[in-house]
Amino acid sequence: MTKQVHLAAHFPGVNNTTVWSDPAAGSQIDFASFRHLAETAERGTFDFFFLAEGLRLREVKGRIHDLDVVGRPESLTVLSALAAVTTHLGLAATVNSTFNEPYELAKRLATLDQLSGGRAAWNVVTSWDAFTGENFRRGGYLDKSDRYVRAQESLRIVRKLWDSWAADDLIADQVTGRFAREGAGAFADDGDHFRISGRFGLPPSPQGRPVIIQAGDSDQGREFAASGADVIFSWHGTFAAGQTFYKDVKARLAKYGRSEDSLKIMPAVTVVVGDTDADAVEKAAYIREQQVSGPTALVLAELLWGRDLSAYDPDGPLPELEPVVGSSVTQGRVGYNDPGPIVAEWRAQAEAHGWSLRETVINQQNRQTFIGSPATVAEAINRHVQEDAADGFVLVPHLTPTGLDDFVDQVVPLLRERGVFRTEYAGPTLRDQLGLRR
């Protein structure tokens, strides 16, 4: 059976994928930028628009990381504004479960779901460092195992709150049109991290409850996604790696009484479209060079080595120093638990190809990339979906806010011609677009 491709749009924000020097680059915080990308995604009948989260600006040796100086808006606020200028596009927010309370999470997400007519999604993430926690009263830092325990408990409670208004039990007042039920919204939960009780303030939206997204490739993350997520947002560098991940995660669903269709696997990808394959390859090489400047290459290398590498020439050879685990040279970014093997691989690749430090960083970026003419890109995307390397993709453009324009104008029509991508939305809610039960 031919599978349908699912597509989503990621707003680049303060990411190393963004080409800040491009003359067409726009603001990362102006609403017009968010609106343009969202309206482009809806014109392309994408499933949802995805926003990341930053709870603290990244720092390098005590100074704000250069990509973060523009600031980081709060996701749910931006998506609430976008709900007013879109009609079918899903609105997905990354919201941290470590520094938010379940009732607060449930209320804010349910409000977006109501305002948008059933188009909200929550990307459930955990915090990984004490550096971020310094922005919060707890100074919060939890061991990795505890972070997932808290996240699972948060998700369980949030769902309990969303389900506390049982539609079948609601009694409609035929005169006023209002609903009332004894015990409506009542909840209570006593767990390892939370002990709460009360009444939840909102009935279900048209999609029942927001879609749950989970990002993570670890074994614990995969299990978390299999147990309760609707979409898993992942990273794979090759087609084969995607197939391996897909098979592993889908195989975990049965133990939770779930079908393979109940979880969509959507890796993040970058796409470079050119008039011809050769044109796209040349364009992609230029983009990679602009994405990884000399200073950026040093920052990314410092993250791996755990050392101050400012004395090194990014266009020179790799450092001969051995990496240090647990260093705080670069703060606010995920580090490496075991950098030794990765450093060894970098050195082997640099020696084999004659790469400088910067060239090595450019070529070791792990994100799956589709490069080619519109026909080549459409064929590659469809192959990944039909051969079970993914159910679809979250596109991360290199340019804000016009980075998806070429894809929507040139690639989407070809996917539609193949009969593997919708020409119109399946219904009013995000669950309709994803083919998920309400």
Structure description:
It holds the Pfam family Bac_luciferase. One of its GO terms (molecular function) is monooxygenase activity. With 438 residues, the protein is α/β, with parallel strands linked by helices. The protein folds into two domains: 339 residues, Alpha-Beta Barrel (TIM Barrel); 72 residues, no CATH class. It is built from 14 helices and 17 strands. Helix 2 packs parallel to helix 3, helix 9 crosses helix 11 and helix 12 crosses helix 13. The longest helix has 19 residues. The two termini are 24 Å apart.
Structure at a glance:
The chain is 37% helix and 15% strand. It is an alpha/beta fold and 438 residues long.
How is the topology of this model organized?
Blueprint (H helix, E strand, L loop, with lengths): L5 E5 L20 H13 L4 E4 L7 E2 L2 E2 L10 H9 L6 E7 L5 H14 L4 E6 L4 H4 L10 H19 L8 E2 L6 E2 L5 E5 L4 E5 L11 E5 L3 H10 L2 E3 L5 H13 L12 E2 L2 E6 L3 H15 L2 H12 L24 E2 L7 H15 L3 H8 L3 E5 L1 H13 L5 E4 L9 H13 L12 H5 L4
Parallel strand pairs: 1-2, 1-17, 2-5, 5-6, 6-11, 11-12, 12-13, 14-16, 14-17
Antiparallel strand pairs: 3-4, 3-15, 7-8, 9-10
Keywords: Flavoprotein, FMN, Monooxygenase, Oxidoreductase
GO molecular function, one term: oxidoreductase activity, acting on paired donors, with incorporation or reduction of molecular oxygen
Protein name: FMN-dependent oxidoreductase (Nitrilotriacetate monooxygenase family)
